[in-house]
Amino acid sequence: MNKNSSNTMALAPNTSNKRETVCIFGTGDFGRALGHKMIQSGYPVVYGSRSTQISNLIPKDAEVLGHAEAAQKAAIIIIAIQRQHYNFLTPLAEVLRGKVLVDISNNLKLNQYPESNAEYLAQLLPGSKVVKAFNTVSAWALQSGTLDASRQVFVCGDDVEAKQMVMNIVRALGLTPLDKGSLLAAQEIENYPLQLFPMWRFPMFLSLGLTAFFFFYCVALDIIYTYIYENNDFSFFIAITIPNRVCPVMALILLALVYVPGIFAAIIQLYRGTKYRRFPDWLDKWMLCRKQLGLIALAFASLHVVFTLVTPLRAFASWRTGKGIISQALNNKTEPLDHTKAWLSDSYLALGILGFFLFVLLGITSLPSVSNNVNWREFRFVQSKLGYMALILCTAHTMVYGGKWFLSPSAYKWYLPNIYILSLIVPCAVLVVKFVLIFPCVDKPLTQIRQGWERNPKYSE
Amino acid sequence: MNKNSSNTMALAPNTSNKRETVCIFGTGDFGRALGHKMIQSGYPVVYGSRSTQISNLIPKDAEVLGHAEAAQKAAIIIIAIQRQHYNFLTPLAEVLRGKVLVDISNNLKLNQYPESNAEYLAQLLPGSKVVKAFNTVSAWALQSGTLDASRQVFVCGDDVEAKQMVMNIVRALGLTPLDKGSLLAAQEIENYPLQLFPMWRFPMFLSLGLTAFFFFYCVALDIIYTYIYENNDFSFFIAITIPNRVCPVMALILLALVYVPGIFAAIIQLYRGTKYRRFPDWLDKWMLCRKQLGLIALAFASLHVVFTLVTPLRAFASWRTGKGIISQALNNKTEPLDHTKAWLSDSYLALGILGFFLFVLLGITSLPSVSNNVNWREFRFVQSKLGYMALILCTAHTMVYGGKWFLSPSAYKWYLPNIYILSLIVPCAVLVVKFVLIFPCVDKPLTQIRQGWERNPKYSE
Amino acid sequence: MNKNSSNTMALAPNTSNKRETVCIFGTGDFGRALGHKMIQSGYPVVYGSRSTQISNLIPKDAEVLGHAEAAQKAAIIIIAIQRQHYNFLTPLAEVLRGKVLVDISNNLKLNQYPESNAEYLAQLLPGSKVVKAFNTVSAWALQSGTLDASRQVFVCGDDVEAKQMVMNIVRALGLTPLDKGSLLAAQEIENYPLQLFPMWRFPMFLSLGLTAFFFFYCVALDIIYTYIYENNDFSFFIAITIPNRVCPVMALILLALVYVPGIFAAIIQLYRGTKYRRFPDWLDKWMLCRKQLGLIALAFASLHVVFTLVTPLRAFASWRTGKGIISQALNNKTEPLDHTKAWLSDSYLALGILGFFLFVLLGITSLPSVSNNVNWREFRFVQSKLGYMALILCTAHTMVYGGKWFLSPSAYKWYLPNIYILSLIVPCAVLVVKFVLIFPCVDKPLTQIRQGWERNPKYSE
User: Fold this and answer.
1) pLDDT (average), residues B26-36
2) A20–C contact, CB cutoff 8 A
3) Which of A423, B82, C314, C352 could pair with A249 as two cysteines, CB 3.0-4.6 Å apart?
4) What is the pTM of this model?
């Protein structure tokens, strides 16, 4: 390393109190990227490799030695090799005794092996201190410096001191370490980069299922029924008209479903007279995916807004407008303004706009950087007060819009209700129960329970 | 704790260099949640409780002892009990001498007691080192792991070492400690979770007041006047037409108000010839709520955009369109395209769209995570250059829109100007003064003053 | 400091284990703001100044002494004076020996001096340990507490211990230190606050150039051609019609350009048979500005959406609608609904809406706080899968929209194609090549190469 010391100056400090040397086993992609980053942050780096011939891909301020020789130079050894080659480390057990081994490996599938890679490494080398880290960081991100996806580095390990040493390195590289406990957490950490939106799975499937149901319901009522009984071909409704019926219905139902678990929780707490018993599992899970449900509802609402706003641009809409005007013109008369109609149309539009506006506010507040900047009281105010206000406005929007058809028999094709009626069931139920829950005679005991009061204190022993 | 050591392994490290034991007084919600999280992060936890009978709610790897016994096992004791029960700690004063007591309590009202809870605790136990922390974190968030609202933990205390120990625990739990100074800051920290958007209060009240004023102004001119003098019932204008007049007016005025304090500051600095004197208080406060004013203005602008875009969907609009076309048809003639009208209508729409686009850009840049990723020069470029550009475009949009009515006497019902004229006063004043301020003969001395030059250096003694 | 100790209590700890004293040379804006913040965080602060007369602008809990005297009181000295006055420190060399000097200076221009200010300081005082820090923080932000722009403090220095001391102070002030290595990084750190969106420069110039080209292309074909050959004055098209032709074209081309470098990279890797050779420089740079290209494309797409949605509000549009309806009315007949037209119009609107929806999702995921919360697999899923889906939908939208004119000779004014045809070249090429690349016979070797396999392993020596 002293040979090209003039060059080293640019990266490594030139004073005596250097950072401790770090050893990296393996000169693959990630090993090289990590070494490069470490040299930038002032760590002397030595690579352990089968061939000590210096490749031009390895950072030029790093040394390359044999495995045993390299390991002796450092207290921390980063194992940048794949799990299937771990057993070649067994002969080195003596050299690695007492050293901190950092397992950075990932698997290709969830739970690929019975035990995590880090635990397997710890079993192979019981004399070393194994720490799991860096597996969620990508080589590309380290190299390019654009750490767009997650700066968080999950760290776990049984030896607190070893863990601390690794966390200090993580911090020095400009990343954020997050201590996940003992090495048993390694399985979870290794599964993490293989996950694909686990919190979104249930809300996604639920929405897809409901969307498919409502879509075919509408196709049946609006296209097939019309074709059979009125002999009109409205198959082009599939592109805009029907999506624009399904989207608002989905938005309203999903928004209401966000508030259902809170209501269940209140009822359960009131019934049990204590908050010190766990909710059933399904309720806990439902509560944890409320944010996702709400955001999917917001996506549907946004689509509904755009689908509605393009209406005047549709060939069908301009044809219908023209037809109406021409029939008036041919009858030589101008219809006067229908004030009820004007009131109704303006009201449901205004209600919808305000509801959507609050809904977007809710969405913005759920952005991580925004919600990090509010305190709990503010967060609850927005998510609960504004959320209920949005639900009330959107429900009213739907009711005013559909009011005129509610009692008209022509709206019940094949004796089935229009989907906007179906969409009102959940939100109306939520609002009615919530209205009951805010009555003082119900609200007061509930508040007491939530502050720790128990109707039957024996329960919690 | 040794009894179920097989189970403990999953959470606590099994090596000798354990983290220091933490004691928690109180087995309420927050005490349990915090204990659970600490065990996960490798801290041995011991609860101090009146009844040492183990509840199944307490994390199973924690010990439960009497208060005195538990306190002896740890250097740090978290006081998870309510302020009104603090006096039961007095008999324990000897055991707690020299220990770090972490006050995590909150009050129900702002400034509920003359002194903060943490200071009260410090007075009760003068031999202990009291640190305030964790009061802004919720038990629910700790338990569910979803720290959506704020990861920040405000810490304060008179003993720097004690504070450092607590901050290390905060970091180990994956939270971000923020040192707020000595224990006198505890009052502020205890008030923090009770605050409800304090920075938004003034901008909110201002907007509500102005909105109400302009709303009734419009109702008077557009509905009542028309009803009295023209006998037309346009009461349905309340839903969309009038909101869509008030929103753009509010957006323009509030956007201009964002730039007023900067202009005042420049004038004051020019007049005083120095930047080393404090601005008047009202100006300081105004400057600190510019972001909030701007975001409220953006909300009004967004509402204006949606209210405008739904116009063609309104029953009133289609009736009016139909009426115009039918009257042409009945007269058997087609009016040629009015080029001036086409130019005007397209210009004000284009100006409005571009202004709104810049406005949304400003809004996005003010998201915490985005503004954290730009440097000051970039931030100022966006907020000042792009902001003024947005103001110019929006003012021009309003002028082109209203130009044709400006001199028409019919626009002055009851001798009152149309509100779009009122809305132009502040923005035009801002733009004119700003235009003067960028003249070199004014800009040069101002820049010098801002770089530290003083016209009359004696002033700052 | 003891004089007004009753007041000091509020800010500084009153116990024996105080934080170490910090000395600040210079009582300018930034020196005062930093001192104030430090006192709040419990650091005793002493100012070194030419005049020891206490100004009322200096935080009142700070001492003011002569330079030498002040320097003796602290281990860390913050040099809050401008580079041109650094030489006055030379006589103090003996006093400053071994001390940590924090250089916080900035320049007015990029690379103003041959060496960075911090290196210059280190040359002047070789016995001191110079650390660069705090230069990206603004005095205004420190004072007002609103650290909207960047909490990050870049730190560099040759002495690791000194750097650590400074980083601890940074953390105590509630800011985030980021270690950038040895003092040679000072130049980069000093240039940082002078940069104006360096990553955006190339994408911006590219978009401006292309926009200008397409704008004049459209003006020529739609306004000048029409004026010359059809004698129609459509000059008002400049405001909305032409921008609304240029925006979608720009959005589509830029979105496609986001995916071009990935395709080039795949082809290069396939051709070379290894991933261990660097890409050409232009490709690396292109890859690093993909996010910016995508966001500019999203801006154009959003403008296109709004420009399209205001269509019905334009005087020209209502004139054209009226004309069509009147001509039907005067001919005494109503045209039946043209199903093909209805299908086409609804399809391209629906495709455009869905494409834009996915595009906005991509934009939201690229917000720093959102992308920090997803793992790499999720990030790639969104940016690659959803991105290609958006590209496919938008390309289909353009094709369905323009399909009817594709073969019509009237669309080729002056033998030039309509711009929507030009806009399809890049996206179609990208989609075709991508389609080839996902064939198993091509995808399999590519995947192997990306996992480290080399066709000709000798290459990487």
Assistant:
1) 84
2) no
3) A423
4) 0.84
